[in-house]
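[step 3/7] fold_predict: job queued, chain A
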Amino acid sequence: MPRRRRRNRRASRGYSVRVTRTKGSGASQTTSYRTGGLSITGVGPTGRVTGSRLTVWATVRDQGGGLSKKDIRLYLDGSEKTRFHYDPASGRLSYYVGGALSLGVHRVEIEAEAQSGESQIRSSSTTRKSWTLTVVRR
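[step 4/7] structure written:
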């Protein structure tokens, strides 16, 4: 009798499915999966901005759950910033640039790493998003 293929509904919604563990062989083989999707979206500001005191924002989510502020790194012009706010429930990240930014191009980078798995087998996924903004005179 042919086997029916079951459609993975989560995978069809943009989630990723990853094999985290395979044990045994043949008919007794078992495979564990992790569903999730680490993403950084809705970043800003981008392009040309007026005013040198601004707030950087993004949405950082792990569909598998468990992402916290300690799993996220934020860099402004190559310098790591730790005084940002992150709300795990909504995924919203914000960082108020306290000092005035100089005129010109500035680079923002966010990196997030999600850990999953049992104590014996751990896996991690990392995603990174970077963009530039240009501070101009009013």
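[step 5/7] annotate
DSSP finds one helix and eleven strands in the chain.
The chain has a mean pLDDT of 79.
exit 0
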